[in-house]
Amino acid sequence: MRGCIAASILALSALALGTWAQSQTKGPQGVSINTVPNSYIVKFSEEPGSIDWEQAVGDFMADMQKVGVSSRITINFTEVIVAAAITFEDQYVDQVAMLPTAAGLFAVNQASLAPLASSSEPVEQPPLPMLAHTYTEVSRVHDELKLTGKGVKVAILDSGLDHKHPAFGNCFQTDGCRIQYAHDFIGDVSSGDSTNMTGPGNPLSTCNPHGTHVAGILAGNDGVFKGVAPDATLGIYRIIDCSGTTTTSAILQALEQAYKDGMDVISISAGTPSGWRFSPESTAVYNLRKKGKVVIAAAGNDGTENLWTVLSPAVSPGALAVASVDLPQYYSYYFNVTTADGGITQIERSGHQRELPPLDIVDAPLVGAQDAQGGADYACGPIADITEKNAIVLVQRGTCPYTTKASNVIAAGGAVMIVYSAVKEIVGGVSYDQNLNLPAFSTSYEGGQFLRQLVSPSSTGSATVNVDMTMHSFNASIPYQVSYFSSWGPSPESDVKPDVSAPGRAIYSSLPQEYGMYGLMDGTSMATPYLAGVAALLVQSKKFFKPTEVYSAIVNSARPILQTQDQYFSAAQQGAGLVQAYRAATTTLHFQVRALATGYTDYLAFGATGDEKGRKFEMTLPVSNRASGAVQLTLSFVPAISATAFNESGVLLPTTQYSTAAPKLTFSQDSLTVRGHSQKDVKVTLDLSDIPSSNFLVVSGYIHMRVGSDTSKVVASVPVLSSAFKASEIPVLPPKDSAYPCLISSDLTRCLTGDKVTYTMSGDSFPKVAFRIQFPAIRIRVRIGHAKTPDHVTASVTENSYLYNQRNMNSDNAYFYAYTWNGKAYRSLKVENTFDMGDGDYVLQFWFFSATGDVESTMWVTPPFTIKRDATTSSVNSDSTENPGDSTSDSEEHNGEDDD
């Protein structure tokens, strides 16, 4: 799955003599993530379930007393991770991080999660069949195999559940009720404090509809509406509060409780964008897999943010990370358009503003927005007066904000606004940045073109529109697409992440009764319970006894989706492809590759491969036949589209770019016969000789297996992925002509240029550095040198505290890491050997390590600065080359060791 991290690095005690911070970072559902002040998770090296955990905690607390740090342990984790939630003042994080009794120290994240889309003003919707079941073979599993999840215990880690909804039997923990386990770890309003749990019993919250929607997808049953595993026994573990917030502590508590309650399958549609398998959540999930539990986790909704954006714990090798796929059919709100000849056309639309009343529009005239000077229909300036009463105004998307368009429509006398796009894209909602009493919704490209003809000057008749709050099924203009919002992998170590895809676009499922009973949501949050339901069906079949067997069945039976006529979507975007439940439940072929340091995988990942001579690489693919009779297989390879996150200058791009360059893959034998209940190995050779490493391409494809000479039916496929560049060449930092890194002002608002800066090392007058990283950095080292000899190391500032750093997002160029140095340094990894650097002229050296951990990929040296502690003022140049953005005082710690 990935190469191992150098043990010699991770074995060192962590030390940091400074403070890291990161301005608010775009989170897994499009909002913010912060660290909770003074709250940390300390990991220990003991195995979960070990009786030695008390000794480990005791030794650590004794060390804390030795260094004089006052602290309090609030929660001990012992079942799926040996760790503790601990509170102490942030200023002591460097001393705590270096203690030899701590295997890793992580700040407690507080992440805000929200669905990408949902119903508008609550209006009761009827139960409708799940359209996805046809395309995922779930219907076939229900009908032919009679598998419904009965007897399988499934944990849902989310925002709670409306147990009074008819899809869940209007019961709780009574005989025959499917909801038998429940626990609340977050409360209605999370303070971020790890002690803020309301205790066992009643996470039956309806203040946030997310959890009820997720539970319906997995196991709802209202007669007409049926989830994937409608007879599964449910454990409801509330980790998301009313506002959509979760914390690291809540996630860990819920994972532990789910294990204690004997859950077979765990579904988690939440996570933090740490991007590494070493986070506490990812470590816990990996241990759960080793303990026989199946964990399904959302990959995330940062698909517009380029590569390496899969969440933790989805990035863990213990989880199946789920991407989202758009299916050929979906439910949507709609409106009817009646033309002058009496014809009626049904057109899909998005929801409208939740704060406005439900739509009930009868025979409203349709008009086009025309600028007062004539021509364009963007409505970005005054538009011609609308004389028709209660008119619906057609406006083109783009050029200016929706609020501007709506204000001009209101001024002209319009009653409703329809927004269309001139290019084919996803139908999205219309939102305002202020309260406006104008309902607005968007429509599809095809719908917009139809409407545009009706309002064009050449149109010979009038058209009217009828709108209400009902839904209808529509056919997608392009069937089978990876959802635009679905997060990209691979993992920083080139693991195949996400692992597999499931339906996550416009999913119709249950909502709390006050939200309308049923409605639509988008996101990998929806794809996750769908796949968890499939896993429950496989567990019920009694054919798969280990998580690795369930994972192999799901991954290797999935259907990869074509992006072009002859190339698939990248495996770093769709994983193995769309889940096929029937094929997974009936497969007798298994492919479990032994990957260094991570156990078994269901794919071939060659990592950052450019370092090997000749750029040809070989792996072994074991093919196991669990049927009684022999099977003859024919092997072939079909490439996927290649992807890069960088331009030719090594600058991280806003969105992923594609290339038709494809790897060559050959087999030691193109066909083989595997006897019953036996295994046969195939040597697989990957050739990247024709792909320049300078393009930083992530290449992938799929090994297809067919029975005998029958080329019409693929019975199994194995994803293949490689990074076609050297790990040492990855541009962790932007090019040198970028604004970052830079010394920044004391208020963190501007880069400093010009004359040398003087710091008094008091108040806010400390050296501060802002930088952006374009690729997840496994380690950041900071050292100090004299200004006269900037390349010579005088002392260390931090060596191993800052591990497993996520890359910066592109959605706002102000997002950056900030480091403040407090003037202390050391010459050995012991607290007692720290000292204050004297006054003088210095530089800070920043060393950034790529995913391999043993390659010094980038070094950056600050401009010279002066420390003068007896100065009364700090001379700070007022020139500004860049606005780094607003800072927060929250520290973003990335510490820990690999105890997987």
Automatic annotation (TrEMBL):
Keywords: Hydrolase, Protease, Secreted, Serine protease, Signal
Domain C5a peptidase/Subtilisin-like protease SBT2-like Fn3-like: 614-720
InterPro entries for the chain: C5a/SBT2-like_Fn3 (IPR010435), PA_dom_sf (IPR046450), PA_domain (IPR003137), Peptidase_S8/S53_dom (IPR000209), Peptidase_S8/S53_dom_sf (IPR036852), Peptidase_S8/S53_subtilisin (IPR051048), Peptidase_S8_Asp-AS (IPR023827), Peptidase_S8_His-AS (IPR022398)
Range of residues in the leader sequence: 1-21
Active-site residues per Swiss-Prot or TrEMBL entry: 158, 210, 525
Domain PA: 363-449
Biased composition annotated in UniProt, kind: Polar residues: 872-888
Region (Disordered) residue spans: 870-900
Listed Pfam families: fn3_5 (PF06280), PA (PF02225), Peptidase_S8 (PF00082)
Peptidase S8/S53 domain residues: 149-563
GO cellular component: membrane
GO biological process, one term: proteolysis
GO molecular function, one term: serine-type endopeptidase activity
Keyword Transmembrane helix: no
Family: Belongs to the peptidase S8 family.
Protein name: Peptidase S8/S53 domain-containing protein
Organism of origin: Dimargaris verticillata
Biological classification of the source: Eukaryota, Fungi, Fungi incertae sedis, Zoopagomycota, Kickxellomycotina
